[in-house]
């Protein structure tokens, strides 16, 4: 089976999701989120990096990074804030609301997701009365690792907006099912909501990739490039192999200098640096999730000796592998 580079990275960085709010809004309403780093410990404990997303199930609204240009969200639209920026979702552009970080910590022991109704700037727990709202959304969080190496997040914009393909879009239907699950008591509902949130994000990434211009830059765009995408596939298929730029250039049919220049221009680093960073991410995953020795980890990610791997790992994360393993496991 052909290597799926995006899936490889998402597995390694431990993507996980959670549905947090079922929100309805009426008249002049606004909800403002603080920086995700301020509430990460409450909404997704243990996640190194947290992103927030919103899916419009019915009606329309506006979303913007605080201080940024607002975008209109119609039914079925998805908006993700990949860098965890403070942002506003509202009935009209330019609106603001108090960003209450403390409230997330106060709700930690309550059952997820919370149902909130925003009406003329008043916030009430529970769902809206029938016919009494202009927009309905489901909102949640996604967590992942950033260290030692996550090439995905840096390649995403501050605000990722995906309009719905149609009202019958399968993703819209999934998120409507998530809304139904969120109000019931069926066994497994929590796991269902987590998986649906993760599916939403992966589909958002795929649509973002499809919509990128031909001259796009960054890791996401690199996967689509004829030459860079092939190099990424080769490196992810066999990260422990003793690759050289010469061999990669022969495999993809481009000169060494042209390949290095093209890869660095698109990804932000040369192929050998990318491989070294990806090996550190794989090593971190093995250290965290398995009990194999550091020497075995070194061999599995392409290092001939444990000391060489340990030095490289310490440069990447700031501590030796054994210490990192203890901290990662809590």
Structural topology:
Layout: H1 5-12, E1 16-26, E2 30-33, H2 36-43, E3 49-59, E4 61-65, E5 71-73, E6 78-81, E7 87-90, H3 101-106, E8 114-119, E9 122-125, E10 135-144, E11 160-162, H4 170-183, H5 189-211, H6 219-224, H7 228-237, H8 245-252, H9 256-267, H10 271-289, H11 294-300, H12 306-317, H13 321-328
Parallel strand pairs: 1-8
Antiparallel strand pairs: 1-10, 2-7, 3-6, 3-10, 4-5, 4-7, 6-11, 8-9
Helix pairs in contact: 4-5, 11-12
Report on this structure:
The chain is an alpha+beta fold. 43% of the residues lie in helices and 20% in strands. The longest helix has 23 residues, at 189-211. It starts with a helix and ends with a helix. 36% of the residues are buried.
Kindly report how far apart the N and C termini lie. 36 Å
Class per helix and strand makeup: alpha+beta
Instruction: Please count the beta strands (DSSP E, at least 2 residues each).
Output: 11
Helix content: 40-55%
Main beta-sheet strand count, sense and barrel state: 7 strands, mixed
Beta-strand percent range = 15-25%
Q: What is the radius of gyration computed over CA atoms, rounded to a whole number of angstroms?
A: 22 Å
Tally of helical segments: 13
Question: Would you tell me the overall average pLDDT?
Answer: 88
Order of helices and strands: HEEHEEEEEHEEEEHHHHHHHHHH
Order of strands in the sheet with most strands:
9-8-1-10-3-6-11
Give the overall shape.
Answer: globular
Poorly predicted regions are none
Q: What's the number of structural domains?
A: 2
């Amino acid at each position: 089976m052909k290597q799926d580079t995006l899936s490889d990275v998402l597995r390694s960085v431990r993507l996980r999701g959670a549905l947090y709010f079922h929100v309805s809004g009426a008249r002049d309403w606004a909800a403002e989120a603080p920086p995700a780093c301020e509430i990460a410990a409450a909404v997704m404990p243990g996640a190194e990096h947290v992103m927030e997303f919103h899916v419009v199930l019915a009606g329309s609204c506006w979303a913007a990074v605080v201080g940024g240009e607002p975008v209109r969200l119609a039914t079925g639209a998805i908006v993700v804030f990949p860098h965890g920026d403070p942002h506003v979702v509202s009935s009209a552009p330019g609106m603001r609301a108090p960003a209450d970080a403390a409230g997330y910590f106060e709700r930690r022991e309550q059952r997820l997701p919370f149902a909130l109704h925003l009406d003329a700037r008043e916030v009430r727990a529970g769902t809206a009365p029938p016919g009494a709202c202009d927009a309905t959304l489901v909102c949640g969080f996604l967590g992942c690792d950033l260290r030692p190496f996550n090439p995905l997040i840096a390649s995403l914009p501050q605000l990722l907006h995906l309009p719905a393909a149609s009202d019958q879009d399968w993703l819209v239907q999934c998120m409507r099912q998530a809304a139904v699950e969120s109000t019931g008591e069926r066994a497994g509902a929590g796991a269902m909501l987590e998986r649906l949130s993760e599916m939403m994000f992966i589909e958002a990434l795929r649509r973002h990739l499809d919509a990128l211009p031909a001259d796009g830059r960054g890791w996401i765009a690199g996967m689509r490039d004829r030459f860079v995408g092939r190099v990424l596939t080769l490196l992810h298929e066999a990260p422990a192999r003793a690759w050289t730029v010469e061999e990669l250039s022969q495999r993809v049919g481009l000169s060494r200098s042209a390949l290095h220049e093209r890869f660095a221009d698109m990804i932000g680093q040369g192929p050998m640096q990318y491989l070294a960073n990806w090996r550190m991410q794989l090593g971190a995953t093995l250290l965290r999730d398995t009990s194999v020795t550091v020497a075995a980890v070194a061999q599995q990610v392409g290092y001939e000796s444990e000391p060489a791997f340990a030095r490289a790992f310490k440069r990447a994360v700031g501590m030796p592998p054994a210490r990192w393993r203890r901290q990662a496991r809590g």
